Amino acid sequence: MSLDGGRRLSTKYLLRATLDSREDDTADAGMKSKASDRDGHELNAVATEMIADGHSSSSAGFADFTEMPDEPVYRVYKRRFFGLIQLILLNIVVSWDWLTFSPVSNSASQYFGVSESAINWFSTGFLFAFVIISPLVIYTLNQGGPKTSIIVASVLVFIGNWIRYAGTRASGGVFGVVMAGQMIIGLAQPFVLSAPTRYSNLWFSDSGRVSATAVASLANPLGGALAQLITPFWATDVSGIPSMVLYTAILSTVASLPSFFLPASPPTPPSAIAADNRLSLRQALHELPTNASFYLVFIPFSVYVGQFNAVSSLLNQIFEPYGFSETDAGIAGAILIVVGLVASAIVSPIVDRTKKYLPVIKICVPTVAASYLVLIWMPATRTVIGPYIVCAVLGAASFSLLPCALEYLVLITHPVSPEISSTLCWTGGQLLGAIFILIMDALKGAPGEPEGSMKRALIFEAVIAWVVVPLPLMLGYWIFKRTGLVRLRSVESRVST
């Protein structure tokens, strides 16, 4: 991931960037004190600093400096990683909170005295909460920026986790109280899950945006993988459920605290896209529905995110009827996500350098659909090898696709602010995920299969996956020729003139 954002210089941006560079990247307090103008004249302060540094030794030299053409400068700041790390932590814990009970659905149902279908509502309600709050998320990110959104998420995560723990401890487990806490955490998720594109656009250069978006966005499924892998060891039987919820609440609290100390925005923009004027929220909501290419990304993105959410939530119930243990299912979920993270770590920097968004999208989409097709027959093998291999392929394709699609969406929808398109896509994915969970739960049982088999549900998933395959393959053709690179070059040309 390149950290070099420097390009052309403008007087206004150079003054501001130079001042900030002194504060951000040097420890020479004496130089700053000597060069600063206590009457607020920044221009003279910068001139003094540049003379001291050897950039100019005369008033004529400074005159030459002030007469430089007014062209933009783009640079990045080390402090951007502070916010990125905080986004990663919050996305990990909010996803961990989402899937807290899924890997131990059988034990949880016994502890709370409800059915496994009722336990599924911990996941389903969480996803519906995302949809309910999404309009406020768009407004918050658009008007308040990523920092405000992150703080809101941190407060909700803190409150929701401790309500869940109180409900788990009270009277041997009060299902309704735990569900209320789960819903509050669900309201927190979109504030951090929709923030990565906005944050990377605000803080990172063109050569680092895809990687930044990938790291922050894919931290969310990483949290799901950790939940799938670790929570079965925290709750080895019914009596371990309260301790499992307590440990999760402590981790979530620790991850939430640094949010209040984040910088709000960089002093100067990191790229042409970031420097360009954005449409207002009203204008953006009018412009976006007229962009035909938007739908070719929005629909498959929503479907595949929804399918991933549904399969992640029901993975234990998919494998359990065929003799797999909760630990086996948890390992399958971990493989699904860890292999995906490794693949994305390889693919995202390559896309950052080459800008080959479309080839990656058009390769990954059929691969995802093929994986869901093969998954239909994997539980019946009753061995872990087949399911683990399919989960690995599905994870690699899904995770390579996700950040690439999000960043491509930013380019083809510009000058619509990135949080608007990304929040709409994530909302579609969460809504479909909740719907898919309900449908798959209703499709349990199949003739000639073990009791509780989800083979029919997996067939449903595969059919839906293949129905949307043609849509992204149409990108770049006919009325969908609007490509990200064309938009990027247009913006760079306009900003530089």
UniProtKB/TrEMBL annotation:
- Which GO molecular function, any one, fits this protein according to its record? transmembrane transporter activity
The record's subcellular locations are: Membrane
Tell me the classification of the organism that encodes this protein.
Eukaryota, Fungi, Dikarya, Ascomycota, Pezizomycotina
Q: Which UniProt keywords apply?
A: Membrane, Transmembrane, Transmembrane helix
Kindly state one GO CC term assigned in the UniProt record.
membrane
- Protein name stated in the entry: Major facilitator superfamily (MFS) profile domain-containing protein
Q: Which InterPro entries match?
A: FLVCR1-2_SLC49-like, MFS, MFS_trans_sf
Membrane topology (UniProt): Multi-pass membrane protein
UniProt organism field:
Cryoendolithus antarcticus
| Record-annotated membrane-spanning stretches | 81-99, 119-141, 148-167, 173-193, 214-235, 241-262, 292-311, 331-351, 363-380, 386-411, 423-443, 463-480
Write down the PANTHER family for this protein, in alphabetical order. MAJOR FACILITATOR SUPERFAMILY PROTEIN-RELATED, SOLUTE CARRIER FAMILY 49 MEMBER A3
Write the signal peptide boundaries. none
